[in-house]
UniProtKB/TrEMBL annotation:
This is Integral membrane protein. Keywords: Membrane, Transmembrane, Transmembrane helix. It comes from the Bacteria. The chain crosses the membrane at residues 55-76.
């Protein structure tokens, strides 16, 4: 159980590092990215473990990766500057 939690936290760190390295211009500060990814991975591990019970570790790590990636995707900003005009009142 402890190794499963440590593995999901490490997976969250790896995903955060990859996202911060690949998309630095579209993400907020690095500490927020790393904290969000690790928290998402731990939450994903908890939810997957609660739903599946004593399932294989690979399934819980897959659930942790999915939730961590989804939480990281919520931090992304648009790629370019969009110039939108507000509709007249």
């Amino acid at each position: 159980m402890i190794l499963e939690v440590l593995g999901s936290a490490a997976l969250g760190l790896v995903l955060a590092f990859a996202a911060a390295h690949r998309l630095p211009h579209r993400l907020p500060t690095r500490p927020l990215v790393f904290a969000t990814a690790v928290a998402g991975a731990l939450f994903g591990d908890f939810v997957t473990h609660s739903a599946l019970g004593p399932a294989p570790v690979l399934l819980t790590l897959l659930g942790a990766a999915v939730v961590s990636a989804a939480s990281l995707s919520l931090l992304l900003r648009p790629a370019g500057r969009l110039r939108r005009r507000s509709a007249p009142a």
